[in-house]
Every structure is written in C-alpha cells, then in structure tokens.
Amino acid sequence: MSGPLTDSKVWKSIFQNAPIPMAMVVGDKGIICKVNKAFEKWTEQCSDELLSKSFIHIVGLQDVEHINFKQIAYELETGSEDSVHYKVLLNKERIKSQEVQLHFSLLEDSEQEDHCFIVQAVNPIKDLAAEREWEESKSLFKYNPLGVASMDLSGHLLRVNEGQCKITGHTEEELLMDRYTHLIHPDYIAKTNYHFSMASKGIPQSYHIHMLHKEGHSIEVNVINVPTILNGKVVGVYGITSDITDSRRYLQEIENLSNQLELIFNAVDECIFGVDHAGHLTYLNKKGAELLGIYQEEAIGLKLTNHFLQFNENHYPYAPQKMPIYQSILSGESHCVKEEIFGRKDGSTFIAEYQVTPLIDQGERKGAVVVIRDITSIKEIMKAKEEAIHADRAKSEFLAMMSHELRTPMNGIVGMTSLLMDTDLDEEQKSYTEIIANSSNTLMQMFGELLDFSKIEAGKIEVVHEPFSLIEALHEVHDLFIASAEEKGIRLILNYDENIPETFLGDETKIKQILINLISNGIKFTNDGEVVIQIEQMNTHLAHRKLLVFQIQDTGIGIPLHKQNELFQSFSQLDTSINRKYGGTGLGLAISKRLVEVMGGSISVSSDEGKGATFQFLLELDAV
Q: CA 25 to CA 57: how far, in whole Å?
C-alpha cells in the first residue's frame, strides 16, 4: 500500500512506534496488511505471520456478529465521528487481555479500491497485576513438564506446549491439524469423549486412558480436563496430560511382589505375624492363624496377649503382660528362644521355638516381626526315637547275652556228642548220635549268627584295614565248601580276574564271612547244577584303588520277584515250607548286608523263580 500519508516518514514513525497495538486492515473481511511493533508484541507473532490473515481470526473475537467492516465504513463515511469503538472479548492465549476496546478509523488512500482501516487496541493490558497473571499463565503453559493443550468446544487443538509434543511424539504443526481423537487409543475414545463433554459443561474431569504415540505404541496417561471460562461462559477445554506408563508399571511390579510375598508367607510352615509397639497384630499368615486359633481375616488390630498363653518352667501360665514373648516385643531388641510351652484359649498346648525381630524405620521403632515354629511333633518324634533306640539296645543286649550263655552248654553237648561217636555204638545208636551232632552244629551256627547280628545292632562292629591276599582268601572259602558241594552232587566253580593285585588293604574276616554266607545259601538252595564264585575288578579315578565286583551265582530254586525286597531284612525267609525244608534263622543275608555297608559297599540280588539267583556285592579297596 502506498499514498501520501502512508509514505510519510512521520506517519510511519508514529505507526510503528506507537505504544498502542495498531493494525492496518483492508476490505470487508478485514485482511491485515500492516502491523506495528506493539501489535506484534501483543499477539506474540511477527508481521510475516500476521499479514494476509483475518483480523478477527488473529485476535480470536468471541462475538463477531456486530463486527461488520462494510457497516463500519458506512458509519464513518456518513457520520460525523472519526472512529467507531467496540468493547469486545478475545479468545487467544497469546494476546495479553481478555477484554479490549477496538477503535476503527478509515484511512484515505486513493490507490486502494477497498476500504482501509486503522484498528487500535486501547488498554489491552489493564494493570501490572494483569500483566503478571498473564506471564504466570504463559509460563505455566509453556514450561510445564506435563502435556498441556488448549481446545475449542469441538475438540480441535488450538495450542499445545512442548510437553504435549514430547508425550505424543508429534510436532506442534501435526497436533494443531485435527481434533484430539487421533491421539487416543481406539479402546478409550468413548471414555475420552464422555469426559471431554463433561468438561465442556463446566465440570472438571480426571481420568486414565491409553494414548497412541506417533511411533505406534500405546502409552498410559492421566488426563485432567479443565473448562476454559470467559465471563461465566465455557469457551473451550484445557487438557493436561501426564505419562504414567512407568509409574503404573512400577506399581504393578510392587503389587506383584506384594502378592508373591503374601503367597510365600502363607505357604511357609511357621507362624509369622507382625505387631506394633503396643503388641497389636498388624499381620498374620495362614499358619499363624491356625496355630493361634484366630481367624486370619479378623486378626488385624487384635491384642496378642488376649489370644494365647506362655508357660513357665513349672508349667504355670504367665500373666498376659508378663509373658516373655510379649516383653521381648516391648523391649525393641532381638530375641531367639529355642523351646517354650504355649497354650491356646481352647486349652490345648504346643511346644515351640520363637524369634522376635524389631522393626526400625529411620531410627524409630515401629513394632516387631515374630516367627513361631511349632516343634511339638518333632519333640514327640525325638522321644519316640529315643525309646526305640533304648528298646533296640535292650533287644541287642539280650540277644548277645542269650547267644553267649547258650553257647557254653552247647559246646558241652557238641563235645560230648563227638566223644560219644568215637565209642563202640550199634547202628541205631550211631544214627541217634549223628542226629544229635547235626542238630547241635546247626544250633551253634544259629547262636553265632545271633551273636554277630546283636553286635551289629548294638553298633559294636569295627572295620579293620590290614594287608591281606584276596586270592588266598577266595581259595580258602572255596575249599570250605568243596565237600558239601560234592555231597549234593553240584559243581562249585571259582573264577577271578587274573590281573587282580595280590594284596589289598581291608577287613579279610568280614569279606570271608560275607562270601561264606552267600556260598552257603547258594549250595543250600541248589539241588542240581552249579554254584559259581566270580570276582572282577574295575579301575577308579585313583590308580591304586580298585572296585571289586563279587558275584555268587547258583542254579537253585530262585526267588520270586515280590519276595526279593525282603531278603536282606532281619529274620526274613521266603516262606515257612522252605524254612522247614532248608532250615536257617533268616539272619545270614541281613548280616551280610550290614557288613557290606559298614565297609562302604552295596549288595543286591537278581533272580528268576526256578532258574537260580545271583547275589552281587561291590567293595572299593586299596591295592598295596
């Protein structure tokens, strides 16, 4: 625009430097074509942003029906006044006033076809208090770490701060292009619309929803909607958004941890409860409720001393306030007591150990955690075990005494029978004498087994480690049974690894006793075929230490599968008919098992009924 007046340097200086915001607008639509510095400051926009824009749009007039530039031009051209005045309400955050007087004046310009107006905004800032209020409001919007957005009543975003851009990932330009709905997760649009509508009616709202980040992921936010009110009328809505994704996750983790601790406390077999400094229950787990006879749901706040008793060494109950466990809680010190007697209100008692641990928070005593472990059943088991040990020891001592005492007269019977057999006897007398001799030998063997078993039961058996020749020991045992095997018409075979060392460290007597028991059984229960004694060696991680595998195989009657697990038990036999036919105490295998185990080995059996049996025991011995 040009002309005599607009080209004047004086006019330019007055226009540009006037303290009052001034704008030059043209046409019936009020398009801005020039602004002064005060106007730029007032709107917080530079001239490039203002030019070619509608004046009404820039200042955000609320009531625009009576602002008619064509009518204003007519009034100024036909009337006597130089200017027309309007008192108007504005709705622009960046303009530092809500109410202002606008002065419209015609500017004569022969080169401009449309009407040209000078618009002055008189007293846009009323006072210092209003200025301060505006600056604070601006700072609260601009520098708020939360997301802040100003919306009109249709939900279009008019202005957003940096926090809103950061939360959503969008730029300011992207956010101002549309309504808020494109930022909301589809599942939460209905909820958001409801709260926005309530805020539009003047009712502030606070709610949780999920928003969509520009990159596509969901974020959990808390939204506060505050109505924007001018002159008692709602003209828009402020949205204040805070990202609570991390905090909600932390809360969920804390809740999960709390649930896990609850499950752990209720799963343990000890009574666990918390009390405050006065002895009132603050927590009680499931086992504690069972032990104290209290409903878990009703426990909180109950006085501890009202729900169980503690007894002294004379088995008299303490006064409630004098109970040691209660005094421990009040003392604020840790206590651990191994054995005390407690009583429930129903009259039952239990033996328990307990521990009191004070709870200290920043130097202030908050109460204590008490753990009570019911050891009544353990005490009963220990008592029963001691009684069983005493009974077992008495039995072993009785067996040892009786077997020892009976051996003395039996030795006399065996000796006299042997002498009697050396005299002249007829056939009938000789037959009777042989029966006495055989029965006596059987009894002596039984007494020997009973004596060995009683020693083992009494824990009096000792293992020696002395050098011995394993090969010689095997031959000695083999030679002991050659005659009895030939008498039954069966073969007795000895096989062993030729690389077995000559000398080992171990208990030769016990190894020979095990072999004698097993070979004796093999011959006893085999009527046809053979009994094989077989020994193999295996290397261990130590060069001088060997694992020896002893096997006694027979082709006898075999052992039923369901009976095999009973073989190594004391006084166990297959059945009474076999016992009557073959005899024996049933202690031989039990003794063998104990002897193998005290030497650190193991013994087992495999068998098919009617096809024989194989007994195997393993020993680790040091070669010399």
A: 13
Position of tokens 């949780």?
208
The C-alpha atoms of residue 293 and residue 350 are separated, in whole angstroms, by: 12
> What are the beta bridge partners of residue 550?
535, 617
Distance CA 114, CA 107 (A): 11
Judged on CB neighbours under 10 Å (0-12, 13-18, 19+), 492 is buried
Q: Is 615 exposed, middle or buried (0-12, 13-18, 19+ CB in 10 A)?
A: buried
Eight-class DSSP state of 402:
H
Residue type at 131? E
Q: What is the rounded distance in angstroms from the CA atom of residue 483 to the CA atom of residue 489?
A: 10
- DSSP per-residue string spanning 177-202: TSBGGGGB-GGGHHHHHHHHHHHHTT
pTM of the model: 0.36
- Kindly report the three-state secondary structure assignment for every residue of 17-46: HCCCCEEEEECCCCEEEEECHHHHHHHCCC
∠ at Cα 40 (226, 153), nearest 5°?
Answer: 25
Joined together, the tokens standing for residue 57 give: 């749009």
Reduce the secondary structure of 98-134 to three states and give it as a string.
CEEEEEEEECCCCCCCCCEEEEEEECCCCCHHHHHHH
User: According to the model, what pLDDT value does residue 329 have?
Assistant: 82
CA distance 272 to 284: 6
Give which of 545, 591, 608, 247 is closest to 452, Cα–Cα: 591
Distance separating alpha carbons of residues 227 and 209, to the nearest angstrom: 19
Identify the CA nearest to 58 among candidates 29, 27, 87.
29
- In whole angstroms, what separates CA 619 from the centre of its chain? 45
Cβ-contact 602, 594 below 8 angstroms = no
What's the rounded Cα separation, in Å, for the pair 466 and 473? Answer: 13
Q: Is 480 helix (H, G, I), strand (E, B) or coil?
A: helix
Biggest distance spanned by C-alpha atoms of the chain: 179
Is there a contact between 522 and 555 (Cβ–Cβ < 8 Å)?
A: no
Q: Which helix (H) or strand (E) holds 148?
A: strand 147-151
433 with 421: CB under 8 angstroms? yes
- Give tens-digit pLDDT for 43-100: 888 888 889 888 888 888 766 566 888 888 888 888 888 888 888 877 776 676 667 8
| Structural contact between residues 99 and 87, judged by C-beta atoms closer than 8 angstroms | yes
Count CB atoms within 10 A of the CB of residue 610. 11
Tell me how long the chain is.
624
Measured at the CA of 109, the angle between CA 103 and CA 110, to 5 degrees, comes to 150
Residue found by looking up tokens 């997760």 in the block: 185
What pLDDT, in 10s, does the model give residues 496-549? 988 899 899 999 988 988 898 899 889 988 999 999 999 999 988 888 899 999
What is the Cα–Cα distance from 173 to 160, expressed in whole angstroms?
9
The span from the CA of 408 to the CA of 400, in Å, is 13
Any idea which residue has 């809103």 for tokens?
A: 164
Q: CA 582, CA 565: separation in Å to the nearest integer?
A: 20
Pairwise CA distance, residues 510 & 518, whole Å? 12
Judged on CB neighbours under 10 Å (0-12, 13-18, 19+), 559 is buried
- How far is Cα 219 from Cα 243, in angstroms, rounded to an integer? 7
Give the separation between CA 35 and CA 5, rounded to whole angstroms: 16
Contacts of 51 (CB under 8 A, 6+ apart): 32, 33, 34, 35
DSSP letter string, 527-556: SSSEEEEEEEEEE-SSTTEEEEEEEEEE-S
Q: Give Cα 523 distance to the centre of its chain.
A: 61
